[in-house]
Amino acid sequence: MLGLSVPELQSSMMDGALSARELCEQYLERIERWDRNGPCLNAVIERNSEALELAGKLDQERANKGPRGPLHGIPILLKDNIDTGDGMMTTAGSLALENHYARQDAFLVARLRRAGALILGKTNLSEWANFRSNRSVSGWSSRGGQTRNPYDPARNPCGSSSGSAVAVAAEFCSAAIGTETDGSIVCPASVNGIVGFKPSLGLVSRSGVIPVAHSQDTAGPMTRSVRDAAILMNAIAGHDPNDPASEPAGAIDYTQYLSSDALHGRRVGVLRQYFGVHPKVDEVMESALRTIAAQGAVLVDPVALETREEIHEHELEVLLYEFKTDLNEYLAKAKTPSGIRSLADLIAYNQSNAESVMPFFGQELLLQAQAKGPLSEPAYVQALETSKRLAGELGIDAAMREQNLDGLVAPSNAPAWLIDPVHGDRRSGGSSTPAAVAGYPNVTVPAGFVHGLPVGISFMAGRFQDAEILGFAYAFEQAAQARRSPKLN
Prior knowledge:
Elements: H1 6-14, H2 20-35, E1 44-47, H3 51-65, E2 75-79, H4 107-114, E3 118-123, H5 127-130, E4 140-141, E5 145-146, H6 162-169, E6 175-180, H7 186-191, E7 195-198, E8 218-223, H8 226-236, E9 267-270, H9 279-294, E10 298-300, H10 311-334, H11 343-352, H12 354-357, H13 364-370, H14 378-402, E11 407-411, H15 433-438, E12 442-450, E13 453-460, H16 466-480
Parallel strand pairs: 2-3, 2-6, 9-10, 9-11
Antiparallel strand pairs: 1-3, 4-5, 6-8, 7-8, 7-12, 11-13, 12-13
Helix pairs in contact: 2-3, 8-16, 10-13, 10-14
Protein backbone atom coordinates (compact mmCIF):
# COMPACT_ATOMS: atom_id res chain seq x y z
CA MET A 1 0.00 0.00 0.00
CA LEU A 2 2.72 2.51 1.00
CA GLY A 3 4.47 2.23 -2.35
CA LEU A 4 1.37 3.04 -4.38
CA SER A 5 1.23 6.11 -6.58
CA VAL A 6 -0.57 9.28 -5.56
CA PRO A 7 -3.56 8.53 -7.84
CA GLU A 8 -3.78 4.97 -6.49
CA LEU A 9 -3.71 6.19 -2.89
CA GLN A 10 -6.29 8.84 -3.70
CA SER A 11 -8.52 6.23 -5.29
CA SER A 12 -8.30 4.04 -2.17
CA MET A 13 -9.29 7.00 0.00
CA MET A 14 -12.18 7.88 -2.31
CA ASP A 15 -13.41 4.29 -2.11
CA GLY A 16 -13.24 4.31 1.67
CA ALA A 17 -10.64 1.54 1.75
CA LEU A 18 -8.08 3.89 3.28
CA SER A 19 -8.12 7.12 5.28
CA ALA A 20 -5.50 9.84 5.43
CA ARG A 21 -5.03 9.08 9.13
CA GLU A 22 -4.45 5.37 8.46
CA LEU A 23 -1.98 6.19 5.69
CA CYS A 24 -0.19 8.65 7.95
CA GLU A 25 0.02 6.06 10.74
CA GLN A 26 1.47 3.47 8.36
CA TYR A 27 4.16 5.84 7.11
CA LEU A 28 5.08 6.85 10.67
CA GLU A 29 5.32 3.20 11.68
CA ARG A 30 7.57 2.47 8.70
CA ILE A 31 9.78 5.45 9.55
CA GLU A 32 10.13 4.14 13.09
CA ARG A 33 10.97 0.64 11.88
CA TRP A 34 13.43 1.37 9.08
CA ASP A 35 14.59 4.96 9.53
CA ARG A 36 15.04 5.07 13.31
CA ASN A 37 15.77 1.34 13.65
CA GLY A 38 16.78 -1.55 11.39
CA PRO A 39 19.27 -0.17 8.85
CA CYS A 40 18.78 3.31 10.39
CA LEU A 41 18.56 5.11 7.06
CA ASN A 42 18.25 8.42 8.91
CA ALA A 43 16.29 10.19 6.18
CA VAL A 44 13.65 11.93 8.32
CA ILE A 45 15.12 14.62 10.54
CA GLU A 46 11.83 15.55 12.23
CA ARG A 47 8.28 14.21 12.26
CA ASN A 48 5.32 16.54 12.40
CA SER A 49 3.74 16.14 15.84
CA GLU A 50 0.45 17.43 14.41
CA ALA A 51 0.39 15.00 11.47
CA LEU A 52 -2.24 12.58 12.79
CA GLU A 53 -4.51 15.39 13.95
CA LEU A 54 -4.21 17.12 10.57
CA ALA A 55 -4.88 13.83 8.79
CA GLY A 56 -8.07 13.39 10.80
CA LYS A 57 -9.23 16.88 9.84
CA LEU A 58 -8.55 16.18 6.17
CA ASP A 59 -10.57 12.96 6.44
CA GLN A 60 -13.45 14.89 7.97
CA GLU A 61 -13.25 17.51 5.26
CA ARG A 62 -13.33 14.79 2.60
CA ALA A 63 -16.44 13.31 4.19
CA ASN A 64 -18.19 16.68 4.41
CA LYS A 65 -17.10 18.42 1.20
CA GLY A 66 -15.13 15.96 -0.89
CA PRO A 67 -11.42 16.16 -1.70
CA ARG A 68 -9.71 19.41 -2.65
CA GLY A 69 -7.82 17.61 -5.40
CA PRO A 70 -5.39 14.77 -6.10
CA LEU A 71 -3.16 15.62 -3.12
CA HIS A 72 -5.92 15.67 -0.49
CA GLY A 73 -4.66 13.70 2.51
CA ILE A 74 -1.43 12.65 0.78
CA PRO A 75 1.60 12.68 3.17
CA ILE A 76 4.52 14.75 1.88
CA LEU A 77 7.98 15.23 3.40
CA LEU A 78 9.93 18.48 3.00
CA LYS A 79 13.66 19.07 2.91
CA ASP A 80 14.81 20.80 6.10
CA ASN A 81 15.76 24.03 4.34
CA ILE A 82 12.10 24.80 3.56
CA ASP A 83 10.22 26.98 6.04
CA THR A 84 7.11 25.71 7.77
CA GLY A 85 5.16 28.00 10.05
CA ASP A 86 4.30 25.26 12.51
CA GLY A 87 5.97 23.30 15.31
CA MET A 88 8.82 21.99 13.12
CA MET A 89 12.25 23.56 12.91
CA THR A 90 13.93 24.78 9.73
CA THR A 91 17.70 24.41 10.11
CA ALA A 92 19.39 23.44 6.81
CA GLY A 93 20.69 20.53 8.88
CA SER A 94 22.89 22.79 11.01
CA LEU A 95 23.03 22.83 14.79
CA ALA A 96 23.65 26.55 14.39
CA LEU A 97 19.95 26.95 13.55
CA GLU A 98 18.58 24.48 16.08
CA ASN A 99 15.27 25.70 17.55
CA HIS A 100 14.70 28.04 14.62
CA TYR A 101 10.97 28.02 13.89
CA ALA A 102 9.94 29.95 10.79
CA ARG A 103 7.21 32.51 11.26
CA GLN A 104 5.26 31.34 8.21
CA ASP A 105 5.14 28.66 5.55
CA ALA A 106 7.30 28.95 2.48
CA PHE A 107 5.18 29.91 -0.53
CA LEU A 108 5.39 26.39 -1.95
CA VAL A 109 4.36 24.87 1.39
CA ALA A 110 1.32 27.13 1.58
CA ARG A 111 0.36 25.93 -1.89
CA LEU A 112 0.76 22.29 -0.84
CA ARG A 113 -1.45 22.82 2.19
CA ARG A 114 -4.10 24.56 0.06
CA ALA A 115 -4.05 21.53 -2.24
CA GLY A 116 -4.84 19.32 0.76
CA ALA A 117 -1.42 17.75 1.16
CA LEU A 118 -0.41 16.55 4.62
CA ILE A 119 3.04 17.76 5.69
CA LEU A 120 4.41 14.66 7.43
CA GLY A 121 7.79 16.00 8.48
CA LYS A 122 11.21 17.26 7.40
CA THR A 123 14.04 15.34 5.75
CA ASN A 124 17.76 15.40 6.43
CA LEU A 125 20.11 16.96 3.90
CA SER A 126 23.73 17.68 3.26
CA GLU A 127 24.31 20.55 5.69
CA TRP A 128 23.77 24.00 4.14
CA ALA A 129 22.67 22.21 0.96
CA ASN A 130 26.19 20.84 0.46
CA PHE A 131 27.74 24.30 0.26
CA ARG A 132 30.20 24.23 3.14
CA SER A 133 33.28 22.26 2.10
CA ASN A 134 34.94 20.72 -0.94
CA ARG A 135 35.52 17.60 1.19
CA SER A 136 31.94 17.19 2.37
CA VAL A 137 30.17 13.90 2.95
CA SER A 138 26.85 14.13 1.12
CA GLY A 139 23.85 13.29 3.25
CA TRP A 140 25.57 14.35 6.49
CA SER A 141 24.45 17.20 8.69
CA SER A 142 25.42 18.19 12.21
CA ARG A 143 21.78 18.17 13.27
CA GLY A 144 20.67 15.02 11.47
CA GLY A 145 23.76 12.85 11.14
CA GLN A 146 24.40 10.60 8.12
CA THR A 147 21.60 9.58 5.77
CA ARG A 148 22.18 6.21 4.09
CA ASN A 149 21.29 4.72 0.73
CA PRO A 150 18.43 2.19 1.08
CA TYR A 151 19.87 -0.07 -1.64
CA ASP A 152 23.08 -0.40 0.38
CA PRO A 153 23.32 1.47 3.70
CA ALA A 154 27.11 1.55 3.42
CA ARG A 155 26.73 3.78 0.39
CA ASN A 156 26.08 7.47 0.01
CA PRO A 157 22.62 8.85 -0.86
CA CYS A 158 24.17 11.83 -2.70
CA GLY A 159 23.27 15.40 -1.81
CA SER A 160 21.94 17.69 -0.89
CA SER A 161 18.31 16.46 -1.04
CA SER A 162 19.48 13.12 0.30
CA GLY A 163 16.81 12.61 2.94
CA SER A 164 14.00 13.45 0.51
CA ALA A 165 15.27 10.92 -2.02
CA VAL A 166 15.83 8.15 0.52
CA ALA A 167 12.43 8.75 2.14
CA VAL A 168 10.66 8.38 -1.20
CA ALA A 169 12.68 5.31 -2.23
CA ALA A 170 12.15 3.61 1.14
CA GLU A 171 8.41 4.45 1.16
CA PHE A 172 8.43 6.72 4.19
CA CYS A 173 6.06 9.12 2.40
CA SER A 174 4.01 9.39 -0.78
CA ALA A 175 6.33 12.04 -2.21
CA ALA A 176 8.84 14.65 -1.10
CA ILE A 177 10.14 18.07 -2.00
CA GLY A 178 13.84 18.68 -2.55
CA THR A 179 15.83 21.70 -3.65
CA GLU A 180 18.62 22.08 -6.17
CA THR A 181 21.34 24.57 -6.94
CA ASP A 182 23.33 22.13 -9.05
CA GLY A 183 22.57 18.41 -8.86
CA SER A 184 20.89 18.35 -5.47
CA ILE A 185 17.64 16.91 -6.78
CA VAL A 186 18.97 15.00 -9.76
CA CYS A 187 21.89 13.18 -8.10
CA PRO A 188 20.07 11.84 -5.00
CA ALA A 189 17.07 10.88 -7.12
CA SER A 190 19.30 8.95 -9.53
CA VAL A 191 21.33 7.02 -6.95
CA ASN A 192 18.22 6.20 -4.90
CA GLY A 193 16.21 4.95 -7.86
CA ILE A 194 13.44 7.56 -8.01
CA VAL A 195 12.20 10.39 -10.21
CA GLY A 196 13.63 13.82 -9.48
CA PHE A 197 12.49 16.93 -11.30
CA LYS A 198 14.38 20.22 -11.24
CA PRO A 199 12.04 22.81 -12.79
CA SER A 200 12.99 25.89 -14.77
CA LEU A 201 14.05 28.75 -12.52
CA GLY A 202 10.99 30.84 -11.72
CA LEU A 203 8.28 28.19 -11.87
CA VAL A 204 8.48 27.36 -8.16
CA SER A 205 8.87 30.20 -5.67
CA ARG A 206 12.08 30.46 -3.66
CA SER A 207 10.39 32.46 -0.88
CA GLY A 208 10.90 30.76 2.47
CA VAL A 209 13.69 28.44 1.29
CA ILE A 210 17.12 28.81 2.91
CA PRO A 211 19.22 29.88 -0.06
CA VAL A 212 22.47 28.95 -1.69
CA ALA A 213 22.25 31.13 -4.81
CA HIS A 214 19.22 32.90 -6.18
CA SER A 215 20.29 32.60 -9.82
CA GLN A 216 20.13 28.79 -9.65
CA ASP A 217 18.07 27.71 -6.62
CA THR A 218 14.75 25.95 -7.12
CA ALA A 219 12.63 23.43 -5.29
CA GLY A 220 11.17 20.44 -7.09
CA PRO A 221 9.31 17.11 -6.73
CA MET A 222 10.97 13.84 -5.74
CA THR A 223 8.64 10.92 -6.38
CA ARG A 224 8.37 7.27 -7.35
CA SER A 225 6.79 8.07 -10.73
CA VAL A 226 6.73 10.83 -13.32
CA ARG A 227 2.96 11.21 -12.93
CA ASP A 228 3.38 11.88 -9.22
CA ALA A 229 6.00 14.51 -10.05
CA ALA A 230 3.61 16.21 -12.46
CA ILE A 231 0.86 16.20 -9.82
CA LEU A 232 3.20 17.87 -7.33
CA MET A 233 4.25 20.43 -9.92
CA ASN A 234 0.61 21.36 -10.43
CA ALA A 235 0.47 22.16 -6.72
CA ILE A 236 3.75 23.96 -6.09
CA ALA A 237 4.21 25.93 -9.34
CA GLY A 238 2.68 29.39 -9.24
CA HIS A 239 3.41 33.08 -9.32
CA ASP A 240 4.77 34.61 -6.13
CA PRO A 241 4.92 38.42 -6.21
CA ASN A 242 7.56 38.30 -3.45
CA ASP A 243 10.00 36.30 -5.58
CA PRO A 244 11.65 38.44 -8.30
CA ALA A 245 12.28 35.37 -10.48
CA SER A 246 8.71 34.09 -10.21
CA GLU A 247 6.97 33.86 -13.55
CA PRO A 248 3.44 35.29 -13.86
CA ALA A 249 2.53 32.80 -16.60
CA GLY A 250 -0.82 31.07 -16.40
CA ALA A 251 -1.26 27.71 -14.73
CA ILE A 252 -0.28 24.57 -16.65
CA ASP A 253 -1.64 21.10 -16.00
CA TYR A 254 1.56 19.11 -16.25
CA THR A 255 -0.31 15.81 -16.20
CA GLN A 256 -1.87 16.64 -19.58
CA TYR A 257 1.55 16.22 -21.20
CA LEU A 258 2.00 12.66 -19.94
CA SER A 259 1.54 10.31 -22.85
CA SER A 260 3.15 7.02 -23.81
CA ASP A 261 3.53 8.53 -27.29
CA ALA A 262 5.28 11.70 -26.12
CA LEU A 263 8.61 10.67 -27.65
CA HIS A 264 7.19 9.69 -31.02
CA GLY A 265 8.72 11.78 -33.80
CA ARG A 266 10.74 13.93 -31.38
CA ARG A 267 14.41 14.63 -31.99
CA VAL A 268 16.48 13.76 -28.93
CA GLY A 269 20.19 14.59 -28.70
CA VAL A 270 22.58 12.23 -26.90
CA LEU A 271 25.20 14.00 -24.77
CA ARG A 272 28.05 11.52 -25.21
CA GLN A 273 30.38 13.79 -23.24
CA TYR A 274 28.79 12.40 -20.08
CA PHE A 275 29.35 8.77 -21.00
CA GLY A 276 32.53 6.87 -20.12
CA VAL A 277 32.45 7.35 -16.35
CA HIS A 278 31.58 3.69 -15.72
CA PRO A 279 31.30 0.93 -18.36
CA LYS A 280 28.28 -0.67 -16.70
CA VAL A 281 26.48 2.67 -16.61
CA ASP A 282 27.18 3.02 -20.32
CA GLU A 283 25.55 -0.39 -20.89
CA VAL A 284 22.43 0.77 -19.02
CA MET A 285 22.39 3.98 -21.08
CA GLU A 286 22.72 2.12 -24.39
CA SER A 287 19.71 0.03 -23.40
CA ALA A 288 17.85 3.20 -22.44
CA LEU A 289 18.65 4.76 -25.81
CA ARG A 290 17.25 1.69 -27.58
CA THR A 291 14.07 2.09 -25.52
CA ILE A 292 13.81 5.76 -26.48
CA ALA A 293 14.28 4.93 -30.15
CA ALA A 294 11.68 2.16 -29.90
CA GLN A 295 9.16 4.80 -28.79
CA GLY A 296 9.57 6.51 -32.14
CA ALA A 297 12.11 9.17 -31.18
CA VAL A 298 14.82 10.23 -33.61
CA LEU A 299 18.15 9.97 -31.79
CA VAL A 300 20.77 12.50 -32.82
CA ASP A 301 23.98 10.91 -31.59
CA PRO A 302 26.33 12.41 -30.57
CA VAL A 303 25.50 15.98 -29.61
CA ALA A 304 28.11 18.09 -27.85
CA LEU A 305 27.84 20.99 -25.44
CA GLU A 306 30.90 22.89 -26.63
CA THR A 307 31.08 25.04 -23.49
CA ARG A 308 30.77 22.22 -20.96
CA GLU A 309 34.25 22.50 -19.43
CA GLU A 310 34.19 26.29 -19.19
CA ILE A 311 31.09 26.60 -17.02
CA HIS A 312 32.35 25.39 -13.64
CA GLU A 313 34.86 28.10 -12.75
CA HIS A 314 32.38 30.89 -13.45
CA GLU A 315 29.58 29.02 -11.67
CA LEU A 316 31.56 28.72 -8.44
CA GLU A 317 32.32 32.44 -8.44
CA VAL A 318 28.61 33.20 -8.77
CA LEU A 319 27.67 30.79 -6.00
CA LEU A 320 30.21 32.25 -3.58
CA TYR A 321 28.98 35.80 -4.09
CA GLU A 322 25.29 34.92 -3.99
CA PHE A 323 25.58 32.60 -0.99
CA LYS A 324 26.95 35.41 1.17
CA THR A 325 24.38 37.97 0.06
CA ASP A 326 21.38 35.62 0.03
CA LEU A 327 22.14 33.85 3.31
CA ASN A 328 22.77 37.17 5.07
CA GLU A 329 19.36 38.36 3.93
CA TYR A 330 17.62 35.16 5.08
CA LEU A 331 19.33 35.10 8.49
CA ALA A 332 18.71 38.78 9.15
CA LYS A 333 14.98 38.24 8.66
CA ALA A 334 14.81 34.87 10.42
CA LYS A 335 16.07 36.18 13.79
CA THR A 336 17.15 32.73 14.92
CA PRO A 337 17.27 32.10 18.70
CA SER A 338 20.98 31.29 18.47
CA GLY A 339 21.62 34.91 17.51
CA ILE A 340 23.12 34.01 14.15
CA ARG A 341 22.23 36.90 11.84
CA SER A 342 24.90 36.60 9.15
CA LEU A 343 27.36 34.32 7.41
CA ALA A 344 30.10 35.77 9.63
CA ASP A 345 28.12 34.71 12.71
CA LEU A 346 27.70 31.21 11.26
CA ILE A 347 31.43 30.87 10.60
CA ALA A 348 32.20 31.95 14.15
CA TYR A 349 29.65 29.47 15.55
CA ASN A 350 31.19 26.63 13.53
CA GLN A 351 34.66 27.50 14.76
CA SER A 352 33.50 27.60 18.39
CA ASN A 353 31.61 24.31 18.07
CA ALA A 354 33.93 22.46 15.73
CA GLU A 355 33.76 19.11 17.52
CA SER A 356 30.01 18.76 16.93
CA VAL A 357 29.60 20.78 13.74
CA MET A 358 32.81 20.01 11.86
CA PRO A 359 33.98 16.53 12.94
CA PHE A 360 34.79 15.35 9.40
CA PHE A 361 35.20 18.37 7.13
CA GLY A 362 35.59 22.10 7.39
CA GLN A 363 33.94 25.24 6.08
CA GLU A 364 36.29 26.51 3.40
CA LEU A 365 33.42 27.39 1.03
CA LEU A 366 31.84 29.53 3.75
CA LEU A 367 35.16 31.31 4.26
CA GLN A 368 35.57 31.89 0.53
CA ALA A 369 32.03 33.27 0.33
CA GLN A 370 32.59 35.57 3.31
CA ALA A 371 35.60 37.08 1.50
CA LYS A 372 33.39 38.20 -1.39
CA GLY A 373 31.99 41.70 -1.72
CA PRO A 374 28.56 42.93 -2.82
CA LEU A 375 26.76 41.79 -5.97
CA SER A 376 27.63 45.10 -7.59
CA GLU A 377 31.27 44.05 -7.96
CA PRO A 378 32.37 43.59 -11.61
CA ALA A 379 33.80 40.13 -10.84
CA TYR A 380 30.33 38.88 -9.87
CA VAL A 381 28.48 40.63 -12.68
CA GLN A 382 30.87 39.20 -15.26
CA ALA A 383 30.84 35.69 -13.78
CA LEU A 384 27.03 35.62 -13.75
CA GLU A 385 26.71 36.83 -17.33
CA THR A 386 29.42 34.44 -18.53
CA SER A 387 28.09 31.36 -16.75
CA LYS A 388 24.53 31.93 -17.96
CA ARG A 389 25.70 32.47 -21.54
CA LEU A 390 27.98 29.41 -21.53
CA ALA A 391 25.29 27.12 -20.10
CA GLY A 392 22.30 28.54 -21.97
CA GLU A 393 22.85 30.51 -25.16
CA LEU A 394 26.16 28.87 -26.12
CA GLY A 395 25.42 25.53 -24.45
CA ILE A 396 21.99 23.91 -24.35
CA ASP A 397 20.31 26.47 -26.62
CA ALA A 398 23.03 26.24 -29.27
CA ALA A 399 23.04 22.43 -29.30
CA MET A 400 19.28 22.24 -29.61
CA ARG A 401 19.07 24.94 -32.24
CA GLU A 402 21.87 23.60 -34.44
CA GLN A 403 20.49 20.06 -34.41
CA ASN A 404 16.80 21.06 -34.35
CA LEU A 405 16.29 19.09 -31.15
CA ASP A 406 13.32 18.72 -28.85
CA GLY A 407 15.38 17.50 -25.91
CA LEU A 408 18.68 16.12 -24.66
CA VAL A 409 19.56 12.96 -22.70
CA ALA A 410 22.56 11.98 -20.61
CA PRO A 411 23.43 9.62 -17.77
CA SER A 412 22.34 11.29 -14.53
CA ASN A 413 25.18 9.94 -12.38
CA ALA A 414 27.35 6.93 -11.72
CA PRO A 415 26.11 4.55 -8.98
CA ALA A 416 26.32 5.49 -5.30
CA TRP A 417 29.80 5.55 -3.78
CA LEU A 418 30.77 4.35 -0.30
CA ILE A 419 30.28 6.74 2.61
CA ASP A 420 33.74 8.04 3.42
CA PRO A 421 34.10 10.62 6.22
CA VAL A 422 37.91 10.55 5.83
CA HIS A 423 38.16 11.58 2.17
CA GLY A 424 34.67 12.94 1.54
CA ASP A 425 32.59 12.41 -1.57
CA ARG A 426 33.73 10.64 -4.68
CA ARG A 427 32.58 12.74 -7.64
CA SER A 428 30.39 10.68 -9.89
CA GLY A 429 30.26 12.17 -13.36
CA GLY A 430 26.95 14.00 -13.02
CA SER A 431 25.36 15.81 -15.96
CA SER A 432 23.34 18.37 -13.99
CA THR A 433 25.48 21.50 -14.38
CA PRO A 434 24.40 22.94 -17.76
CA ALA A 435 20.67 22.86 -16.94
CA ALA A 436 21.31 24.02 -13.37
CA VAL A 437 23.37 27.04 -14.35
CA ALA A 438 21.11 27.98 -17.26
CA GLY A 439 18.01 27.62 -15.08
CA TYR A 440 16.51 25.04 -17.44
CA PRO A 441 14.47 21.92 -16.59
CA ASN A 442 16.07 18.55 -15.87
CA VAL A 443 14.32 15.32 -14.90
CA THR A 444 15.98 12.04 -13.96
CA VAL A 445 14.13 8.73 -14.33
CA PRO A 446 15.27 5.25 -13.21
CA ALA A 447 17.03 3.56 -16.11
CA GLY A 448 18.51 0.40 -14.61
CA PHE A 449 20.95 -1.06 -12.12
CA VAL A 450 24.69 -1.55 -11.82
CA HIS A 451 25.67 -4.23 -9.29
CA GLY A 452 22.29 -3.78 -7.60
CA LEU A 453 22.59 0.01 -7.41
CA PRO A 454 20.20 2.27 -9.35
CA VAL A 455 21.23 4.68 -12.07
CA GLY A 456 19.06 7.24 -13.84
CA ILE A 457 18.80 8.89 -17.21
CA SER A 458 18.30 12.66 -17.44
CA PHE A 459 16.07 14.50 -19.90
CA MET A 460 16.88 18.19 -20.41
CA ALA A 461 15.62 20.97 -22.65
CA GLY A 462 15.36 24.76 -22.95
CA ARG A 463 13.78 27.14 -20.48
CA PHE A 464 10.12 26.49 -19.68
CA GLN A 465 10.02 23.24 -21.68
CA ASP A 466 9.23 21.58 -18.37
CA ALA A 467 5.95 20.01 -19.41
CA GLU A 468 7.48 18.60 -22.59
CA ILE A 469 10.40 16.86 -20.88
CA LEU A 470 8.09 15.46 -18.23
CA GLY A 471 6.21 13.94 -21.15
CA PHE A 472 9.42 12.47 -22.58
CA ALA A 473 10.37 11.08 -19.18
CA TYR A 474 6.92 9.55 -18.75
CA ALA A 475 7.06 7.83 -22.14
CA PHE A 476 10.47 6.38 -21.31
CA GLU A 477 9.37 5.34 -17.82
CA GLN A 478 6.30 3.52 -19.11
CA ALA A 479 8.34 1.63 -21.69
CA ALA A 480 11.37 0.86 -19.53
CA GLN A 481 9.67 0.01 -16.21
CA ALA A 482 13.14 0.10 -14.67
CA ARG A 483 12.38 1.03 -11.06
CA ARG A 484 12.58 -1.60 -8.30
CA SER A 485 12.02 -0.80 -4.64
CA PRO A 486 14.92 -1.44 -2.26
CA LYS A 487 14.73 -4.51 -0.04
CA LEU A 488 15.13 -3.27 3.51
CA ASN A 489 16.41 -5.66 6.16
